[in-house]
Write a structure and sequence with these properties.
This protein is α/β, with parallel strands linked by helices. The chain has 13 helices and eight strands. The protein has helices spanning 2-9, 13-21, 25-32, 38-50, 67-84, 109-126, 141-152, 169-176, 201-217, 229-241, 259-267, 283-292, 294-307, and strands at 54-59, 93-97, 131-133, 159-163, 182-186, 221-225, 250-254, 272-278. The protein has an eight-stranded parallel barrel with strand order 1-2-3-4-5-6-7-8, surrounded by seven helices. Helix 8 (169-176) packs parallel to helix 9 (201-217) and helix 12 crosses helix 13 (294-307). The two termini are 26 Å apart.
Length: 308
């Protein structure tokens, strides 16, 4: 039951200051976030792609309070795209974006986020790659899906994320499992009320499988966001049953978690994409990684004790 507590802490300024000030924090954060700048992360991009892996890159940061910050987030992604261009990686290095970072929660946020994310999506397409819109808490999803639909009119390969723990997601998956769509399925990493989301792990896992079956049997491109060995095996079986080739779906896992499994899946011929975040505003992202899995929290706690 620690997950909800950690998620609540991810919104606490006091906890942010406490965790950020701990001497051990940087060493532990480096496990999940390999750098703060483009210069620091580009060698990781080259290393991972050199090992047969693919990436989706996230410039971390969510708590935007001004239009100027939203514009700076847009510019950070445009800088990343500019730096990726000479590497000629195409879709082997795509981007993930959170619309909250582009001003979605501000006054007039829907239009502001669309205006800020559009040039990023267009610039990514210009270097032969794609953008996926990350899902956030349930109150933001109608706006996210509307922006996704609007962007796909001009850049149809724009992807989106759906979360298995939300009751609404099975219907969303049926709508999205259409030709040309790119959909990442994750369990979900926000604290959601029982009125809108499953609360028990076994319920979330069952929903994940039902939704994944819908995506595999559809005409789109499923992206399996999970580190769970059982769900990975089920995904492979669902793909075989649906008659999908290895390049007609992909696995996605976080940088710093189950790295050996990344390489194993890639060696078997699967498309394996590593979600690689970087930037200075890492706190919210880091805390959700702790909340998602008790092993991550134990890793952090052991490091605090051993280095304290």
């Amino acid at each position: 039951m620690l997950g909800p507590v950690i998620l609540a802490a991810s919104r606490s300024d006091r906890m942010r200051r406490l965790v950020s000030a701990a001497p051990v924090t940087k060493q532990v954060v480096d496990r999940f976030i390999p750098g703060e700048t483009v210069d620091e992360v580009l060698p990781i991009v080259q290393e991972l792609t050199g090992n047969g892996l693919e990436l989706t890159m996230d410039v971390v940061g969510e708590d935007i309070t001004t239009p100027e910050q939203a514009a700076a987030a847009r510019d950070a992604y445009l800088e990343l795209i500019g730096r990726l261009k000479p590497l000629e990686l195409g879709t082997r290095a795509e981007m993930s974006v959170k619309l909250s970072m582009f001003g979605q929660a501000l006054e007039g946020g829907h239009e502001l986020a669309l205006a800020n994310v559009r040039p990023v999506v267009e610039a990514a397409a210009g270097i032969g790659t794609t953008v996926t819109l990350d899902a956030e808490d349930h109150t933001t999803l109608d706006s996210m899906f509307a922006i996704h639909e609007e962007l796909r009119k001009d850049v149809p390969q724009t992807g989106c994320v759906i979360q298995a723990y939300l009751f609404r997601t099975e219907e969303d998956a049926r709508r999205l499992a259409a030709a040309g769509s790119r959909v990442r399925l994750v369990k979900g990493a926000y604290k959601e009320p029982a009125e809108v989301a499953y609360q028990q792990k076994h319920e979330i896992d069952k929903a994940y499988v039902r939704i994944l079956r819908t995506l595999m049997e559809g005409e789109g491109y499923p992206m399996i966001g999970s580190h769970d060995p059982r769900l990975i095996s089920i995904a492979q079986e669902l793909a075989r049953t649906a008659g999908r080739k290895l390049d007609e779906y992909e696995f996605q896992m976080l940088y710093g978690i189950r790295g050996d499994e990344h390489l194993r899946l890639a060696a078997e011929g699967h498309r394996m994409r590593v979600y690689t975040a970087y930037g200075t505003d890492w706190y919210g992202y880091f805390m959700r990684r702790l909340a998602e899995k008790p092993a991550n929290l134990r890793f952090f706690a052991r490091s605090m004790i051993s280095r304290g």
